[in-house]
Specification:
Layout lengths: L1 H33 L3 H4 L13 H9 L2 H32 L5 H10 L9 H11 L5 H24 L4 H9 L4 H12 L1 H17 L2 H6 L7 H6 L2 E2 L2 E2 L1 H21 L1 H8 L6
Antiparallel strand pairs: 1-2
Helix pairs in contact: 1-13, 3-13, 4-7, 4-10, 7-10, 10-14
Length: 274
Amino acid sequence: MLEQSFRRQALITTLGWGATLLMFFPILWMTMAAFKTETQAIASPPILWFTPTLENFIAVLRRADYLHFFTNSVLVSVGSTALGILIGLPAAYALAFHPGPKTRDLLVWMLSTKMMPAVGVLVPMYLMFQKTGMLDTVTGLIAIYTLINLPIIVWMLFTFLREVPREILEAARIDGASPLLQILYLLLPLTAPGIASTALLAIILTWNEAFWSINLTAWRATPLPAFIASFSSPEGLFWAKMSAASLLAIGPIIAFGWLTQKQLVRGLTFGAVK
C-alpha cells in the first residue's frame, strides 16, 4: 500500500514537472535566442552552446524608445484595471446580494462575450474610435481593455462576494449602512485577497493583449506588444532582435507576477476552504 502511494506521488510529481518544463520551454528558447547573433538564432540544427552577446538588446534600444512603450503599457494596464474594478465591484455586489430570476443568464451572457472573435468587431470599433478622436490614445486603449476584461472581473468578484455571509450585511443594514458603506467598510476588507487577485489577473491580461494595441494605435499610445511587432519587417523576421524585444516586454510582467504570486494564489483560492 505504501509502495503504491509512493508510485502515485512520484507519477504526479513527474507529470507536474513535465507540464511546467513544457510551458517554460518557449520562454527559455526565446531567452537563448535573445543572446545569440542573428545567424546563430536561425541556424539549423539549433546551436545550444554559444557565447552570449548583448548586441540585440543594444540594437533594439537604439531603434525604439523602450521607455515610451513601457510607460504606455503601465498606464493602460493600471488604468483599465482600476476602471474595471470600479465598475465591476458594484455590479458584482448587485448580482451576489440582490439576485433576480435572470441573474445566472446575465452572468452567462457576460462571459459569452469573451467568445466573440475580436476581428469581427474591428471595423465598427475602429470607426467609433476615429469619430470620437480616440485613435492612438491611452484613453482609448483604457476604454477598450476595460470592456474586454470587465466580464472576467465581474465573474471573479461575484464569486468572491458570494462567499461573504449575508448575515454581516443584514446587520449593517439594520445599523443604517447604505450599499456604498457596506462595500467600503465591509466587503472591501473581507474580500481584499479576491479583489487583489482579480486586479493582478486583469493587469496581466491587459499587458499581454496585442490585437487592439496594434490596430488602434500608431505611435503616441503604443504599448509593448506593438513594440515587439515593430521588429517584423518586409525584409524578414529578425529572430534574435525580436526575441530581445520580447524579453524586454515580458520581463517586467514576469517579475511582477513572481513578486505577487502569493497574493495571486491566496486570492484565487479565497473561499475554497472553510
